Amino acid sequence: MSIIDVDQCVIGNQTSIGHFNIFVGTRKLSIGGHTIIGHFNVFRGGDLISIGRYCEILRFNEINSLLSSDMINEVDQTFLIGDGTMLGASHKIDFTDRVEFGKCVILGGRNSSLWTHNRQMTKPINIGDHAYIGSEIRVAPGGEIPAHSIVGIGSVITKKLVGEHKLIAGVPAKVVSDLDEAGEFLISNKTRPDLPDEIANASLKVIDSKNLVR
Fold first, then answer.
1. To which H or E segment does residue 144 belong?
2. What contacts 197, CB < 8 A, 6 or more positions away?
3. From residue 45, how far is each of 32, 109, 153 by CA, in Å?
4. Can you say how many angstroms the Cα of residue 77 is from the centroid of all Cα atoms in its chain?
């Protein structure tokens, strides 16, 4: 049993929504085909929640936009998840302003928090394709994580970080090093066994004779 109470709703073929999920107060909800949504997730508010194809959202996640606010800047209450992206458990994501996950992103582990507003101002958050994000990460308003990067456990993203194929870590987070061979394998591995190659390899290139890809 789940509740979907939104103005407009489109759900793709062969999508699975588990028990005790709540979708409420959103103007438009779009869920792509072959997506799996687990149990006890809350999706609340905003103009648009768009979840791509072959995504997976596990359990106890809170994805929320303020229903009313006194922000002094213009906001874009949109939450986007690219094809093949996976969200783990017990994460809290505020999209009072725009939050966008690229393709094949992994927000792994538990208890990460992403928020886009302080008391009266907002800034969007962007996470690039094939980023791999560890547990208990904090992303402040305006934080950006580059594509093909790994963010270490407990890092705090306070600004736009640049440079693909990098290891990012620390408080505040910064680029630590280039990814090694194990890191490159981690970001290029499929987020789901059934993920079509056309999605998994959309922004990757073969880099050496061992068939590792970027």
1. strand 144-145
2. none
3. 19, 25, 29
4. 15
Question: Torsion over CA of 132, 141, 84 and 44, rounded to 10 degrees?
Answer: 130
DSSP assignment of 29-77 equals: EEE-TT-EEEES-EEE-SSEEEE-TT-EEEES-EEE--SS---SS----
- As given in the structure block, the two tokens for residue 172 are 């505040």
Beta strand pairing status for 166-169 and 150-151? parallel
Total residues belonging to the chain? 214
Q: Which pLDDT value is given to residue 203? A: 63
Q: Is 48 within 8 Å of 78 (Cβ atoms)?
A: yes
User: What are the Cα distances from residue 127, in Å, to 17, 24, 193?
Assistant: 25, 25, 22
| Confidence (pTM) | 0.91
In a 3-state reduction of DSSP, which class is residue 210? coil
Torsion of CA 116, 24, 104, 198, to 10 degrees: -140
CATH 2.160.10.10 fits 3-200, yes or no: yes
What average pLDDT values come out for the chain (214 residues) when binned by 10 residues? 96 97 97 98 97 98 88 94 98 97 97 94 97 96 97 96 95 96 93 94 52 36
Measured CA to CA, the distance from residue 93 to residue 45 in angstroms comes to 12
DSSP state of 160: B
The token pair that represents 200 in the structure block:
């998994």
